[in-house]
Amino acid sequence: MAAQRTFVSGSGNDANAGTITSPKRTFSSALTVTDPGGEIVALDSAAYGAVPINQSVSIIAPSGVYGGITVGSGAAVTLNIGTSDFVVLRGLTINGNPGTTGVLVNAAGKVHVENCVMNGRGSGAGI
What we know:
The protein is mainly beta. The chain has one helix spanning 27-31; strands spanning 3-8, 34-42, 46-47, 51-53, 57-60, 67-71, 75-80, 86-90, 92-96, 101-107, 110-114, 117-119. The chain has 1 helix and 12 strands; from the N terminus they run βαβββββββββββ.
């Protein structure tokens, strides 16, 4: 059963439900239990893994929380959403080795990247 708002934590587990008291561990697992147009919120500072996004969603690391996505190759965030869909990425820190891509937009309606930091792109693209 999907929810409008789901949560991730560095001490979470992807087998959990994604609630505030039973958070997921990764953004990609949380997305599977988040309603289209819903929110994924990082509860505490951690690296939450790369995420392929195929629906409208907001992924949020509140002020003071390190919501990291670190990749060694490929893209940290990959967007394949419809022309009427939207994605908001807020407060995230995206780290990668040279040649990686921060946010790869294959197909999208609206994409808002707010207060995010992208490091270590080298020859790769930030967005």
